[in-house]
Specification:
By secondary structure, the protein is an alpha+beta fold. It contains 25 helices and 29 strands. Helix 16 runs antiparallel to helix 20 and helix 20 packs parallel to helix 22.
Length: 811
């Protein structure tokens, strides 16, 4: 996930330079993609001109409700169709309408409702664009219908070279069946002609039954009843044993709700509260099944068909998608395999404790034409609506159970739906969509340069010879292939907690303070002048800002807060006592301090430097304070400045002695509570060449662990300073090498110092900037970037020469 935009930046004193790229996201916010540019045409000719002027890659976007980057590809051009809207032609007698593809279904309804007509097939929600619905071959709750292709008469298609063609079942049928349900693979759907239906009055009916009874009930009472317009059935989690069946039948009764359409914006606190309660409260699902639904369905209203088809997707929008987000998945199973698939699905959802709102069951008649038909035969659709966390660990877990569900559907003779997270392996895609080779054959004919692509086709489109070419740094997909993910998930110690990227920074602030103190002493400056109070403040500021930056995304463990609190308080006590002492007794002894200091002063500077060298790579409690104390008393007892010598000797003895005892206790407790940490960190890159590792210096520390699918390579680098130095050296290859993820994380944190009025490079998020206590001309800056942009950012920082990189967090 490229998700820098979700972090809250608090009082940072550094600006980020504007980026010419455009961040394109989708409804879940899980797959934002940085595009080179976005164009928003208003005419067919403008679409054609945009395609003629762009060599690619090009993606097509509408309402951006597909949930896996199907409307975008990194560093490409997106044609945003939302301004290409409006009715082109309408024939109420023939019951047809032609619209521009960027038109929302609501706009279609506004036009046809006054003529007593309704959309024949569409999604449950009317917020989507018509072109987007065709691109995914959408469906709704309509009985006796199925995929939207069954209501499409013809389309106007703009091809890769700018040609404008008409396609239908009779004219250019291969383009018609490749474009509808083709996810923008062969062209831009421009104008669409649709069949319409009569806007009849409908009456709602509902009942609850065991899931085991549903398939028989549907065959007897719904499937062949021409009076049923809408029908769906919601399975109740977490048992998935009961199902709530809802049908809307055509009726001659007068309407009980006078409105012909629902309001446009239906977002309300009641919806957000209900979904939050179902997915978060203890017993929330029980309340939904036994209290909320019985209240909501306590009567049988009569409405217009258009009213029931005018739900606005805003009703599903939560207050925030930063830490948690609602997501859809869908599986299609042959109608006669309902009772085979349900137990398999139930077991997987239970085993993985999926936080489901419900599983909604729909029905669809066959689509024998489109190349990516999800209903080549009569099917039941299982629409899973669930909540997941947005962090990397949660996304990996979703990938695991999603692939299990895909396998369950395929083994039952079914398919999975492609508008959602692209988590399937290529083998799963090929087994589910066996005619995909026909789609790609048409694509190669009309788009030979492969101009049209997106996150979906970056993963699943093969080369003409059927192979999958290695990815490159210039065309690295927005997400890793399922094959790579499975391989990485099996590696012990590979995955690290992404939240530690942030919450580790306050501990490193103490390293920076210790380093500053060591450099202060090494420069021969008097200890009494060191800014102890400011150094205490930087720790608490670091703690506050990193927590504020990440708490919307991560749930930081309480143990970490306790540890940081203990560290902060003990540091405040240490620095406070030291500051008081050095500015009283220590300052008096400085009156007897010779030029260059005493042997003890110089020894203290050496110990401080050795201490910093150690804590940059290991815990502070591993430092040999007892050895430092022993070395102190091996110094000559006589020499210039005797008062200063003995004052230093006793002051340092007290410091080293107390720290030695404290370190022994902390070290024993740490070894008892925690296992030894990994000494290496691993990252996945595209474009690796073994000759890079043969270069001298920092690059020689990088080891290629294994080759992964599609040309990705797993690398291993020692932690701490070698890690920083190796990545900085790798930035020399930023034009040919790109990082996909680092120890399972897609976000990387970098700290360093920069001049006060410095501006951070694009594609970074500055989380914290404060003046360096010992240098009022520089700020210490904490910033984050996406792993895929890290080498570019490091290269730019080095080229400009103003930012001194201190640490790249390997947590």
């Amino acid at each position: 996930m490229s998700a820098l935009s979700i972090f809250r930046v608090h009082d940072a004193q550094v600006k980020v330079r504007s980026d010419s790229s455009v961040r394109v996201t989708e409804v879940t916010h899980l797959y934002p993609v940085l595009m080179r540019r976005v164009v928003a045409p208003r005419t067919v000719q403008e679409i054609a001109d945009a395609l003629k002027s762009s060599p690619g890659p090009v993606s097509v976007g509408g309402g951006r409700n597909s949930m896996g980057g199907q409307t975008a590809t990194p560093d490409g051009l997106q044609i945003d169709m939302r301004n290409f809207r409006g009715v082109v032609a309408f024939d109420s007698a023939a019951r047809t309408i032609t619209v521009h593809s960027g038109t929302r279904w609501r706009e279609v309804q506004d036009t046809i409702d006054k003529h007593g007509l309704a959309v024949k097939i569409m999604q449950t929600y009317n917020t989507f664009t018509v072109g987007g619905a065709l691109s995914v071959n959408a469906h709704g709750r309509y009985i006796g219908q199925g995929p939207i292709v069954r209501s499409v008469r013809n389309i106007t298609l703009v091809l890769a070279d700018g040609r404008i063609v008409t396609a239908s079942r009779d004219q250019n049928p291969e383009l018609f069946f490749a474009a509808i349900g083709g996810y923008g693979a062969v062209g831009v759907i421009a104008d669409v002609t649709l069949d319409l239906a009569v806007n009849s009055r409908i009456r709602r009916e509902d009942e609850k039954m065991p899931v085991s009874s549903y398939a028989g009930y549907f065959r007897r009472k719904v499937r062949d009843d021409s009076t049923v317009i809408f029908h769906n059935a919601d399975m109740y989690p977490p048992s998935y044993e009961n199902i709530h069946v809802v049908s809307y039948r055509r009726t001659a009764e007068p309407v009980t709700i006078r409105a012909r359409l629902l309001p446009r914006d239906q977002a309300a606190w009641s919806h957000r509260t209900a979904y939050s309660m179902i997915t978060s409260w203890p017993g929330g699902r029980w309340l939904r099944e036994h209290a909320i639904d019985p209240i909501l369905y306590r009567d049988n209203p009569v409405t217009w068909r258009n009213y029931e088809a005018s739900y606005d997707i805003s009703e599903l929008e939560p207050e925030s998608r930063d830490q948690e987000t609602y997501v859809l998945q869908e599986y299609f199973v042959p109608a006669d395999s309902f009772d085979v698939f349900v137990p398999r699905m139930r077991r997987i959802l239970r085993d993985h404790d999926v936080n489901a709102v419900n599983v909604s069951v729909r029905h669809a008649l066959p689509d024998s034409g489109t190349f990516l038909a999800w209903a080549p035969n009569e099917v039941f659709a299982f629409v899973l609506y669930y909540k997941q966390s947005t962090d990397a660990a949660a996304r990996r877990e979703v990938g695991r159970w999603t692939r299990e569900l895909i396998d369950a559907a395929i083994r039952t003779g079914g398919r999975y739906y492609l508008p959602y997270q692209p988590l399937a392996t290529r083998d799963q895609f090929a087994r589910a969509y066996r005619r995909s080779n026909e789609l790609f054959a048409v694509k190669r004919r009309v788009d030979p340069s492969n101009k049209f692509t997106n996150a979906l086709w970056d993963l699943y489109e093969p080369a003409p010879n059927g192979s999958y070419p290695p990815v490159t740094a210039q065309r690295m997909p927005a997400t890793l292939p399922g094959e790579v993910r499975i391989s990485l998930d099996s590696l012990h110690g590979y995955v690290r907690d992404e939240s530690a990227e942030l919450i580790t920074h306050p501990e490193w602030d103490l390293v920076y303070s210790s380093d500053a103190y060591a450099r202060w002493l090494a420069a021969g400056k008097r200890p009494s002048g060191f800014p102890y109070v400011s150094s205490i403040g930087t720790f608490w500021r670091a703690y506050q800002h990193t927590w504020l930056a990440g708490h919307n995304r991560y749930s930081f463990p309480i143990g970490k807060h306790v540890m940081l609190g203990v560290i902060g308080v003990s540091t405040a006590i240490e620095y406070g006592l030291k500051g008081v002492y050095e500015n009283t007794i220590g300052r008096l002894s400085e009156l007897d301090m010779p030029r260059g200091g005493t042997d003890e002063d110089r020894y203290a500077a050496q110990v401080a430097k050795r201490y910093v060298d150690l804590i940059e790579q290991r815990g502070w409690y591993e430092f040999g304070f007892a050895d430092a104390l022993k070395g102190l008393w091996s110094l000559p007892t006589s020499g210039p400045g005797p008062v200063r010598k003995w004052e230093r000797r006793f002051a340092l003895s007290a410091e080293y002695g107390i720290k030695s005892l404290y370190a022994t206790l902390i070290g024993f407790g740490t070894q008892s509570a925690y296992s030894a940490d990994e000494t290496q960190r691993q990252l996945v890159v595209a474009g690796w060449n073994d000759s890079i590792a043969r270069q001298p210096g920092a690059l020689s520390r990088i080891k290629a662990v294994k080759k992964l699918d599609r040309g990705y390579t797993l690398l291993s680098i020692p932690r701490y300073n070698p890690f920083r130095d190796a990545l900085v050296a790798l930035s020399d290859y930023s034009s040919t090498l790109r990082i996909a993820e680092l120890s399972g994380a897609e976000i990387v944190t970098v700290s360093g110092t920069a001049p006060l009025r410095w501006e951070a490079p694009p594609r970074t998020a500055v989380l914290l900037a404060h003046e360096v206590p010992i240098d009022s001309t520089r700020n210490r800056v904490l910033m984050q970037t996406n792993a895929r942009d890290l080498l570019d950012v490091l290269h730019q920082l080095r080229s400009e020469g103003k930012f001194q990189i201190e640490h790249i967090y390997d947590y």
